Amino acid sequence: xxxxxxxxxxxxxxxxxxxxxxxxxxxxxxxxxxxxxxxxxxxxxxxxxxxxxxxxxxxxxxxxxxxxxxxxxxxxxxxxxxxxxxxxxxxxxxxxxxxxxxxxxxxxxxxxxxxxxxxxxxxxxxxxxxxxxxxxxxxxxxxxxxxxxxxxxxxxxxxxxxxxxxxxxxxxxxxxxxxxxxxxxxxxxxxxxxxxxxxxxxxxxxxxxxxxxxxxxxxxxxxxxxxxxxxxxxxxxxxxxxxxxxxxxxxxxxxxxxxxxxxxxxxxxxxxxxxxxxxxxxxxxxxxxxxxxxxxxxxxxxxxxxxxxxxxxxxxxxxxxxxxxxxxxxxxxxxxxxxxxxxxxxxxxxxxxxxxxxxxxxxxxxxxxxxxxxxxxxxxxxxxxxxxxxxxxxxxxxxxxxxxxxxxxxxxxxxxxxxxxxxxxxxxxxxxxxxxxxxxxxxxxxxxxxxxxxxxxxxxxxxxxxxxxxxxxxxxxxxxxxxxxxxxxxxxxxxxxxxxxxxxxxxxxxxxxxxxxxxxxxxxxxxxxxxxxxxxxxxxxxxxxxxxxxxxxxxxxxxxxxxxxxxxxxxxxxxxxxxxxxxxxxxxxxxxxxxxxxxxxxxxxxxxxxxxxxxxxxxxxxxxxxxxxxxxxxxxxxxxxxxxxxxxxxxxxxxxxxxxxxxxxxxxxxxxxxxxxxxxxxxxxxxxxxxxxxxxxxxxxxxx
Amino acid sequence: xxxxxxxxxxxxxxxxxxxxxxxxxxxxxxxxxxxxxxxxxxxxxxxxxxxxxxxxxxxxxxxxxxxxxxxxxxxxxxxxxxxxxxxxxxxxxxxxxxxxxxxxxxxxxxxxxxxxxxxxxxxxxxxxxxxxxxxxxxxxxxxxxxxxxxxxxxxxxxxxxxxxxxxxxxxxxxxxxxxxxxxxxxxxxxxxxxxxxxxxxxxxxxxxxxxxxxxxxxxxxxxxxxxxxxxxxxxxxxxxxxxxxxxxxxxxx
Lengths: 704, 253
Prior knowledge:
The complex is a heterodimer of chains A (704) and B (253).
Chain A: H1 2-67, H2 78-88, E1 92-99, E2 104-109, H3 115-120, H4 122-129, E3 136-140, E4 143-151, E5 155-163, H5 167-217, H6 232-264, H7 268-272, H8 274-286, H9 307-318, H10 324-330, H11 340-369, H12 371-390, H13 395-422, H14 429-458, H15 460-479, H16 499-506, H17 509-540, H18 545-573, H19 576-592, H20 600-628, H21 630-636, H22 638-702
Antiparallel strand pairs in A: 1-2, 1-5, 3-4, 4-5
Helix pairs in contact in A: 1-5, 5-6, 5-14, 9-13, 9-14, 9-15, 10-11, 11-12, 11-13, 11-22, 12-13, 12-15, 13-14, 14-15, 14-18, 17-18, 17-19, 17-20, 17-22, 18-20, 19-20, 19-22, 20-22, 21-22
Chain B: H1 3-59, H2 70-79, E1 84-91, E2 96-99, H3 111-119, E3 124-127, E4 133-140, E5 146-154, H4 156-208, H5 225-252
Antiparallel strand pairs in B: 1-2, 1-5, 3-4, 4-5
């Protein structure tokens, strides 16, 4: 029943998303068509104006040579000058000089069809002879032309510059890439919004309906005093409630009647009531009537409600990923003894460090103050952090604001995680975390690309302002979370790992094989490459933050597509260590691609392989802790082992940008990509060898 | 109209608003940056002629502060393009040494100009802070050392007028598309969710007759047929048990 309801809803979602996407594509096509018309109409005259300025400059140069006595038809290096013009102005692709009869003297570029006739046309020849003429614009074949007379003390000829008519198309082609990004993001937004605005209530309504059916099938007709929504499902549930109420009233009436009769009946009359008493006993053994326990699951148990706040909040942070290093670069101040590259990495490193160190302790704090309240406080702090970052004066105050943002991020993240933990048991915990990770993944797909586009167009500061608004919106959705805190009565309060546990586990071979050779390197390459190197390198080779965002989107899409698949495959095969090994090795090979070439396509390959490698290993890694460190879990406890594992993993997050920046100082961007990848490759190989050993040890232990 | 349908339509409108809005935003800013770049590069063409003149003078050993012919060259170049409002040449400390506007000589240029010039990785730089836009070129000597900067001030209105014309048209196209979607999407959604709504209606109708004693209707083909069947069966069984109790109570009377 639950499966039917889930698949049924998803089928509806996808159909709705399909229809919405078709409508959106048509609307985007209309906007693009009209934009093209505007671009064509407005950009061409401006470009012609520019061509006239360039032509004027070339003409001055030619007249100078003529002034030195060089005959007009024997000038040297004119085509070379045209070459320089094309290099500086790629929208020009043809230039020529003709004499007063329209005969070609000098030219460069592919001559468009009809050019010779145009040069010799009486209208153009007349311009050449007119001493008061400035320049004339025409269209020759597929090209826009401007023609300018060349005259010293007498008319000499004409200078023509051709503008590639495709340049408007090329400008719009760049926009199209962003429009495709908008389409992908729209698809994810559609699914999120369907879930937020309709799906969450629908799913919970249908879920409740399914539960009610199951309860009634098992003979439970206890009445719930729940307020139903005024929609189709709510009305349906109200009708079922009414049917149950009627049944309960009937039952109570019959029981009351029987009790009355029993009180007044004696002897034979009492004997005659025995079949009714037996029937009531039978009813009581098969059915339950009365009121449902008050602690039955209500809306406060609805896990779906955490998805929208989490998505909105994480989106605010993810939007900054593609341009943060470039923004820091803009606010850079010289710190003695530190290279600028290292300084650029500082805010990312600080952010990751605060998140890493804060999370173990913020868990118990959020438990004390309440998950909803902790999220509200965290999102408020982060909102202030984003807004202040947008207004940052220089690197020093930026570090403070990013620190605030990190604190808020850690608070919200931990509290949301706690919200899921509080509302799930062993049976549905994986499902709860799938929802949690799903929201983060979707934000990771949408955030960097949209952030990059915004930063390119409205600037870094305004883009940070948008993140502040998004964090504020997340506050509104957090405020809608249930105010009643839910906590299993038997649940132990969580705690951060103690120092002696951290130290003991850090010298534990089995634990460190997994953490030091797999988890930390995976995080180092993630933050080092994706959060630091990719945004900076892309901008350094002349691309935009939007392009960096698209690259990071490739990584996120790989994660969204591959993680669920690799998680189920590794769980089914029970060879999680192999998935981690293969994932690490693929991640390690990614950066080595730059040994082949530094082209943009290769960089795409780097991010693609990194996404693939991480997606293969990420799900299996944490499951391996429980698998390989059973002894450690027995000694130190589950919380401590996982706490230290997460702490070290997140320290890897902080180390990534630091290592990458030092490597950039030493060997440049390409060298840094290659070195970090090589490190991860070595760790992957070492992990493979080490876990083969563990396998062998376990086999030996199992078969002494 | 059902509330679920309304919510789905609201989702469609919200997503369309985002997509169309982003597309219009992208097209507008692309247009603005393209036109800005065209105008800037046009202004820089004028600047290149002055740069060549400065470099030629420096190459023959003249001092940067003693280029007597430079103001004349600058005035001539300024007059070659109506867009250029003024040309300044300033040293690395930001002090104007030559200008087409004599009153500016000796004054300091705005801080953002120097910042933009120093930050630029090429010889070209630009700043859009202040009343006018500025496009500039770093002036280098034969040893590739920066001796000063050339700044060409040009009209902000030229770019903004063109952008506002395009912006208005793109906005109109976006609004038209959005209103088009606002009409088409709900109709398309109604077609798609018809089956779902029918299932819900069936479910609701079945729930209305849950307590009826008549035999259950034939399956409707709804996804909820089996659930409805279970519901009715559960209620029927419970009611039968209570009927049995009622009968036994009556027979004892």
